[in-house]
Amino acid sequence: MTSSTLPNQRPPFYRDTRTIAIMLQILFLIVVLGVGWFLYNNMVARLAAGNTAAGGALSWGFLGQTAGFGISEGPTFRPEESYGRAYVVGVINTLRVGIVGIILATVLGLFAGIARVSNNWLLNKLAMVYVEIFRSTPLLVQLLFWYVGVIAALPAIQDAAPLGDLGYLTNRGMHLTWIFPTETGRALTWWLLGGVIVGMAVAWFRRRQLERAGAPGSGAIAGVAAFALVVIVGFLVALSTSAMPAATTYELRRGDRGTLFEDVNGNGAFELNTDRPLAYVPITLFGADGQVIATGMTNGDGGFRFVDLPAEATRLEWTTPTPLVISEPQRQGFNFNGGISVTPEFAALLLALVVYTGAFIAEIVRAGINAVSKGQWEASRALGLTTGATLRMVVLPQALRVIIPPLTSQYLNLVKNSSLAIAVGYPDLFNVSRTIVNQTGAEVQGILLVMATYLSFSLITSLFMNWYNKRVSLVER
Amino acid sequence: MTTDIRSTSWVNTNHPAPAQKPPATEVGVLGWLRTNLFSGIGNSLLTVVTLVALYFIVTNVVRWLLGAFWEPIWVNRKLFAVGQYPLEQLWQPAIVLLMVSLLFGLSAGRWGNIMRNLGIGLGALLLALALIPIGLQAQMVMAASLALLVIGYFIGVRVAISSRWLALAWVLSLPATFVILLGGVNLPTLGVTWNFAPLVESNLWGGLMLTMLLAVVGIALSFPIGVLLALGRRSNLPVVKVFCVGYIELIRGVPLITLLFMGMTMLPLFLPSTWGNPSQLVRAMTAITLFSAAYLAENVRGGLQAIPKGQYEAADALGFSGFDKLRFIILPQALTKVIPAIVGQFIGLFKDTSLASLVGLLELVAVGKAVIQQPAWMGVTGGVAKEVYIFIALVFFIFSFGMSFASRKLESKLGFGKR
């Protein structure tokens, strides 16, 4: 028997694919790092040559400096506060328009998408026209159209006619009647939160119970009932225990304006960060000789201001308010008092985002519904379900699996598109960051901050949607 | 003997009753109305509600249209078309239009499919512009372009032009467009300056021309980058893969407007100070290209994933090298598959170029803003913003909807999306 050994034909190391792979990667890394180093060096050199107020090329110290500019809406922001806090206000404003926009766009898109598959020809075509028009034109043009073309053309404040009891539509924004929790209703927020938790827990238990019993239903009704019960109890408790703080006092300036507050440190003067202003408390103003001059209510910041009083007020009395109060907007000179105000910038941005994204969502919903096989419709019809029930209980749950991935990216698009706020001057995070950059010259840091924020939005949304997608996806072997 | 079959007793000799016409409520207008609008109580109710809503929408739109004031658009039609490009040098954009029309005609004849659909759309647009009295010279240019489009089509159908040469002509048309619009070459950094006409700096380019240019450059330049990124994302080399995934996800996670501002303010920082500052147009184009590349990479990746593994294995078995495998087997199939997706991306990019108005480029939307603020319209009650923005929206609509229509026609022809 001849034993033949194959000659050792391993290729030389420089032709080994594994070596080549490693060499290629090292080469790639060198090129990337080289280019990066080149760009970074240029940037440092140019920044050093130019005079940036940011203090050093890449210092983050500017975030602590005093901002010196105001922000027109969102959480209260005073110019004395820092750039960092200004940016946080911008982020909150982005989330505000983003969350409201996502909810409304989903509702609009769902309706338009269902209308697109409706067998009613007229409704179908109407939805089609809506989708095609708003999908095929740029969001920026739509935004400017709503802002400059529509909202700016609404009547001025002094000419605005009320929309029944709802409020007013003016070119300076929408002023709507709204329900606010008053000083004695502060605890209601906690009751509301508790109600949500209890409601969810009850719904979960009820669903498990129903599943064990093999009965239909999702436990949603039980959950809503539990929620309502908790909230009503909370309201009654707040109503029966409502009392004003013992140290309540007021500051009256120029006989017509001032603040009602709880004097925490007992010095009699209102200090913004120590004393607690009292919101939505009914007040009565008295003149020097004891006659009633005006009655009204403090606003959300505990302040009050009356115009055109017959005489100067010298004294003020307050009564204990109910936990909730309905506040209607009232014209006061060239502005409105009370109610809730929506600025034209917010309204235009929200409208544009909702209408634009709604059109895309409608197409996604339509594609999802069309992806459910026709046999499902026919089977549920054979079982005697109505069209609405078929849609709700058979088709949409199955369509949801197809709908969710593209829907996620639409939600993210909406949040990213809200950066167009800069075109109308709504102070979202990008707009605020531009103001900060213009004042401090911290160009690079500003861009990095904005990018990091948007990326974290993307990440959080993706994580949530992946979790949800996993929940609704088919359970397979 | 033959027997007449009808004489057999079991044959029914009574002719069946003549077919009756279907009831009037099942066919014709009435039947259509019944099936499509009034098939049940719910449906009828829906129809009535929709009709009422439609009535309000239509009457308001018609009332507004009757009172609308279109003069600002008509007066500024040149501004909307090419921006502040010098009047006496408009023959340069005209040459670009003629060149593109000829290329479109040749490609439509040679390649058919989506190019033919797009060519038909372009032809219809040119015809409309040639017939509307926008100005004699402009109309003549439009008519000449239309003629070149048609001539190119017939040449493309009859003559077997090499696809490679045609593609090369398209690739070269992009730098040619820049040279023609600029009136020469002006690269002081490289010491190259040559011109055949007074140089028209890019800050004078504007209007629809600039919008188109931004979108076309954005797709064309991002194409090679996007393909490389897509290949990198599917690579076996972890370093390359991580880099490509990181780039794609980073860019897709941030809004275009941040990249545009970044390009405007930070691009000059990244270059050596000896290179000077690139023009605003170059900065915006860089930002748009880098943005578009990430999205294009995802589209191409979709195409790559749709190639069966057997194709790779067959290429390996035939002894193709890695590059040849991509060049001859994988990419041709993958890229053909993603044409509709790339058209869709082009439409999106075309709309997104409107953001360039926020960083100081005078494209369509910026021209619109300027027109609204012209002193001549200050006295118009209610302003002219509605008219101007509706016009701009209409221009965008014509192009985006036209392109998506052409693409959808193609999809239905190829049977994509049909199961």
Give a quick precis of the structure.
By secondary structure, chain A is an alpha+beta fold.
Question: What is the topology?
Answer:
The complex is a heterodimer of chains A (477) and B (419).
Chain A: H1 17-49, H2 83-116, H3 121-135, H4 139-150, E1 167-170, E2 173-176, E3 178-181, H5 188-213, H6 220-240, E4 248-253, E5 257-262, E6 276-277, E7 282-286, E8 292-297, E9 303-305, E10 315-318, E11 324-327, E12 330-332, E13 335-337, E14 340-342, H7 344-371, H8 374-382, H9 387-417, H10 429-440, H11 443-472
Antiparallel strand pairs in A: 1-2, 2-14, 3-11, 4-5, 5-6, 5-9, 7-8, 7-10, 12-13
Chain B: H1 28-36, H2 41-67, H3 71-75, H4 77-82, H5 91-111, H6 113-131, H7 136-158, H8 163-182, E1 184-187, E2 192-195, H9 207-233, H10 238-253, H11 256-270, H12 280-305, H13 309-317, H14 322-337, H15 339-352, H16 364-372, H17 385-414
Description:
The complex is a heterodimer of chains A (477) and B (419). Chain A has 477 residues and is an alpha+beta fold. Helix content of chain A is 53%, strand content 12%. Chain A is built from eleven helices and 14 strands. In chain A, strands 4, 5, 6 and 9 form a four-stranded antiparallel beta sheet that branches. In chain A, strands 1-2-14 form a three-stranded antiparallel beta sheet. In chain A, strands 8-7-10 form a three-stranded antiparallel beta sheet, with no helix packed on it. In chain A, strand 7 (282-286) and strand 8 (292-297) form a beta hairpin. In chain A, helix 2 packs across helix 7 (344-371), helix 2 runs antiparallel to helix 10 (429-440) and helix 9 (387-417) packs antiparallel against helix 11. The longest helix of chain A is centred in the first third of the chain and has 34 residues, at 83-116. Chain A is globular. Chain A starts with 16 loop residues before the first helix and ends in a 5-residue tail after the last helix. The model of chain A has no long low-confidence stretch (mean pLDDT 84). Helices cover 70% and strands 2% of the residues of chain B. Chain B has helices spanning 28-36, 41-67, 71-75, 77-82, 91-111, 113-131, 136-158, 163-182, 207-233, 238-253, 256-270, 280-305, 309-317, 322-337, 339-352, 364-372, 385-414, and strands at residues 184-187, 192-195. A two-stranded antiparallel ribbon of chain B has the order 1-2. In chain B, strand 1 (184-187) and strand 2 form a beta hairpin. In chain B, helix 9 (207-233) crosses helix 12, helix 10 packs across helix 12 (280-305) and helix 12 (280-305) crosses helix 14. The radius of gyration of chain B is 29 Å and the shape is globular. Classes of the chains: A alpha+beta (477), B mainly alpha (419). The interface between A and B is large, with 57 and 58 residues.
